[in-house]
Amino acid sequence: MTDRESLDVLVVGAGPTGLALAAQLQRYRLRFRIIDRHLDRARESRALAIQPRTLEALAPFGVTDELVARGNPAVQLRMHLPGRTVRLPLFDVGVADTPYPFLLFLSQADTESVLGAHLAEADTAIERGTELLKQAPEGTHVACDLRHQDGREESVRARCVVGCDGAHSTVRDQAGIGFGGHAYPQTFLLADLEVDGLEHGAAHAYMTDAGMLFFFPLGSPATWRMLAMRPPGAADIQSPVSLGQLQAIVDRYIGDLLHLRDPVWMTDFKLHNRGAERYRAGRVFLAGDAAHIHSPAGAQGMNTGIQDALNLGWKLALVSQGAAPEALLDTYESERAPVGRNVLRFTDRAFTVATSRNPLIGLARTRVAPRLAPLVLRLPGVRGAAFRALSQLGIHYRRSPATTEGPHPSRRGPRAGDRLPDSPGSLHAMTAAPGFHLLLCGPRGEWATSQVTAATRGRDVIHVHFLGMTGPWHGIAHGLVRPDGYIAYRAAGTDLTGLTGYLDRWLPRPEPKAS
């Protein structure tokens, strides 16, 4: 490497968010580097579940099958109440349009391992032990000073810097972006270990007056992930946490029903609920925990970060390659910041209900809700809506500036801004290649070749597909799918005038070169 190396993107942080971003930049053959001040990837589990939407989003990289093979697609929840156990299904309705209708329990260590191996196969090095010292705007680039493990320093120029460097983000701090919120007062305990007396193939929640206790099926690096709140009134547990301390908490909460053994990893920690004031400052962007941190309720954190990265990555790529205008980068914050705020609200409310010492809330949590939940969740519509929200399949960008409904849009089916549903013909596989995908439904003879050519000529990032069917969108004749699997434009009929207008704005043809 030489001083002042010029990059398209510098990715700071090699957790799941940074690795996912690097994988996407790699597909578009951008000049990028990914650095991390830590010498090794995560070896403990940390995040423990991958949602269906994240599995879909990672599938084009060819890593999802390996993730599923390593993980545990548990589909049942056991809610243990005083005197009885309630069995609740997970993701059994509302997920018919995805090839991954399950919550995959998999340690973050495994997720990072799979993504890291994918990058290595294409000779992309993760530069561990490399720290960002300073970043500063410099014209159309950001000047970055780096320090390597051996003390060597270098300076690089990047068109964009993306902070995927966690809650204590250097990128965020140096960009002057606030990170408001609050810390929760409770102390929590986390461990990956073996448990005797626990039914396999399900997640377990113990709802007691003393507190809540969870066991999630991992498989690796241990069979179970334990999560518990320190009992009220108990003295703070000093690190390192011991197996005896964990067993005492389990015994206090539920008696001697379970025996803990063979811990792989144990820790105690505090939780925060914080969000970045902005996701962008000039040519500096934030993604993942650098933009939002919250409780683990609903297994949303890592999944939200990965989807931040995949929303941003293709936009960086197309703008860097001159295929899209700079304005496309503005849509990253307008699309992902509302998602981040919703996650912060949802997890905060769920956490407050789960941990409140208010007697009325405690009664509702341990007596009323566990009895009402099975009755309410018997309604397929309610259960389906809840599962689509948790699975992140329901995330949409309908209000994005880069989303447009064409003439005579149908009131049925997915709208512009919605995720493209999968189908028996595997629309997801068809639209997996990098770039946009124009789907033309109905007999091929209905489409004038000259009009299709006129709309797409000079736009090399568009793939055209004649589906030869009436369409998966209940009468919608044509639609444009973005690189991240969301519908950018849809319309009825075979007139592509509206589509051409959309493309002229967001994928303009290159200016002819002067002779």
Can you put this structure into words, describing what you see?
This protein is of the alpha/beta class. It has three domains: 222 residues, 3-Layer(bba) Sandwich (FAD/NAD(P)-binding domain), CATH 3.50.50.60; 159 residues, D-Amino Acid Oxidase, subunit A, domain 2 (D-Amino Acid Oxidase, Chain A, domain 2, 2-Layer Sandwich); 103 residues, Glutaredoxin (3-Layer(aba) Sandwich). 31% of the residues lie in helices and 26% in strands. It has 13 helices and 25 strands. The strands form five sheets. Strands 1, 2, 7, 8, 9, 10, 18 and 19 form an eight-stranded mixed sheet that branches. The chain has a seven-stranded mixed sheet with strand order 5-4-13-14-15-12-16, with helices on both faces. The chain has a five-stranded mixed sheet with strand order 21-25-24-22-23, with helices on one face. Helix 1 runs parallel beside helix 4, helix 1 runs parallel beside helix 7 and helix 7 packs antiparallel against helix 8. The chain is globular.
